[in-house]
Specification:
Number of strands: 20
Helix content: 25-40%
Strand content: 15-25%
Low-confidence stretches: 1-20, 207-226
Distance between the termini: 23 Å
Oligomer: single chain
Mean pLDDT: 89
Largest sheet: 7 strands, antiparallel
Radius of gyration: 23 Å
Structural class: alpha+beta
């Protein structure tokens, strides 16, 4: 408990008893069963605890009941029931979040939406598809195999696509294809009182105008992509309001997503650098030169060494960039030459391009295992991931300052990041039985968040606010900004029933 308090994970939002602060009304569980059937409701302790936490360090806070709706009409009925009885509601996808977003800190009902898994409205001509919350990114791309299209947002985990929309997820491909926000065209939302909202209108998505397409015509591809540009000017942007709302405004029961053409050719490489500054400066120069990288990932020397050992790859313990290029076969050769020249100018070495899917798969599997590689540095210890994002012009200075801060603090915190869009993480590995070390971790995370804000950045680039970053959110938005968010929340959820205790 002392550790949780030091990290800001305890107190009123830490562990509570397995009963909610306000018990469920009499016969309420029976009313839930009447909507979805007895097999789709559970009050078993093991099930509740499974749904009371994600992959973060935040203490498990189990709901009082878990329900598995299988259709949007059932979600509406359940939400209306909870609203009438003033029972808190928490959406649950795959539980892969990193900020305590599914923890039921005030008890209530967890809505596990994994059994709603339809993929519908696939339009190859409009580059779009509609998915329910049980559909994960890997399942969607498997479904799209053979169509020439894919969905590129890749946070690493095989997360629910609606969950990714709820947290505003990002990942390794964001530098070229964008985050979830520009790739969500419409959302079907069940509001806290059970009403149904389509954020771009029922059956609609943003209209499009022809744009540059990678791999579909062979021309030079710009730094941005890809599928046709979509445009809309009808009223407030309700879709963007719900993307990143972290389950606090309603249930995302369907997302219409923007798809992208598969590139004609792909090549990936690893480059080692003499210093952290050189690697990050190379990133900035690659972007300034308009090299259309699809992925550009950074590992510091600690992370590179750990990933090499964990994955069984020969990787030098040096500041490292992983680059991937997408484009036509003709254009790719030119892009590789540009990238190689910039890498060499910054002292980089070890370039060897992998173009076969198996080789590239091993490279990115190594990158996606970074969390487990970091934990392996100190067996028996626990991890805490930071998540800041800064303007690309400030990235070299902020990364170097953060590296120095880690060393001065005596912390194990390998660095990894989607540096093409200014986003990086420190994976802090510490002994949970050592309060002094935990205090250093907490102090470091606060300094890092404020360093990012001072550089004009944000306290969270992709993980969300959840339970742990609410104080930093106030510093980022100011009181007026936070008050505006609270007004929006009160308008849609006047009784504060949707995922209470998060974000605000």
């Amino acid at each position: 408990m002392a550790l949780r308090r030091v990290l800001g994970l305890g107190g009123a939002l830490g562990r509570r008893s397995c009963c909610s602060k306000r018990p469920l009304p009499p016969d309420f569980v029976e009313a839930l069963r009447a909507v979805v059937g007895a097999p789709n409701v559970s009050t078993a302790m093991a099930v509740r605890e499974q749904h009371g936490h994600d992959e973060s360090m935040h203490t498990c806070a189990p709901p009082d009941a878990v329900v598995w709706p299988q259709a949007v009409g059932q979600v509406q009925e359940l939400a209306a029931l909870c609203s009438r009885c003033r029972v808190p509601m928490v959406p649950f996808g795959t539980g892969t979040g990193l900020e305590g977003g599914v923890n039921a800190v005030q008890g209530g009902v967890c809505f596990d939406l994994s059994r709603m898994d339809a993929i519908t409205e696939l339009s190859l001509e409009d580059f779009s598809v509609a998915v329910e919350p049980g559909v994960t990114r890997k399942a969607l791309n498997s479904h799209l195999r053979g169509t020439g299209l894919w969905f590129p947002v890749d946070p690493g985990a095989d997360a629910s696509l609606c969950g990714m929309a709820a947290t505003g997820a990002s990942g390794t491909n964001a530098v070229r294809y964008g985050t979830m926000r520009p790739n969500v065209l419409n959302l079907r939302v069940v509001l806290p009182d059970g009403r149904l909202l389509h954020t771009a209108g029922p059956g609609r998505q943003a209209r499009w105008v022809p744009g540059c397409q990678a791999g579909l015509g062979g021309g030079h591809v710009g730094t941005h992509s890809l599928a046709p540009r979509r445009k809309r000017a009808a009223g407030y942007d309700l879709t963007s309001l719900f993307v990143g709302s972290e389950g606090t405004l309603g249930f995302l029961t369907q997302a219409t997503l923007r798809l992208h053409p598969l590139p004609e050719a792909t090549a990936a490489t690893i480059a080692a650098f003499p210093s952290v500054r050189a690697a990050v400066a190379c990133t900035v120069q690659v972007l300034q030169a308009a090299v259309p990288v699809a992925r550009i990932e950074f590992l510091d020397e600690v992370m590179a060494g750990a990933c090499g050992r964990f994955s069984g790859l020969e990787l030098p313990a040096a500041a490292t960039l992983l680059l991937e290029l997408h484009g036509s076969r003709h254009g790719l050769a030119e892009q590789q030459q540009q990238a190689e020249e910039i890498v060499r100018l910054n002292g980089g070495s070890g370039l060897a391009w992998a173009e076969e899917p198996e080789e590239r798969g091993r490279l990115w599997a190594m990158r996606h295992s970074a969390w487990y590689a970091a934990l392996a540095l100190r067996p028996g210890c626990q991890g805490y991931s930071t998540d800041v994002c800064v303007p690309i012009s400030r990235l070299p200075d902020v990364v170097v300052e953060t590296k120095r801060d880690l060393q001065d603090s005596g912390l194990t915190g390998p660095m990894v990041g989607h540096v093409g869009d200014g986003n990086f993480h420190c994976l802090l590995i510490f002994d949970p039985q050592d309060p002094a070390e935990a205090q250093r971790v907490h102090a470091f995370t606060q300094r890092l968040g404020r360093r990012a804000l001072a550089a004009g950045g944000t306290c969270t680039g992709e993980h969300g606010v959840g339970l742990g970053k609410r104080a930093l959110l106030l510093e980022e938005l100011g009181q007026e900004g936070l008050d505006t968010l609270r007004c929006i929340k009160a308008a849609l959820d006047p009784h504060n029933l949707m995922n209470p205790g998060k974000v605000l």
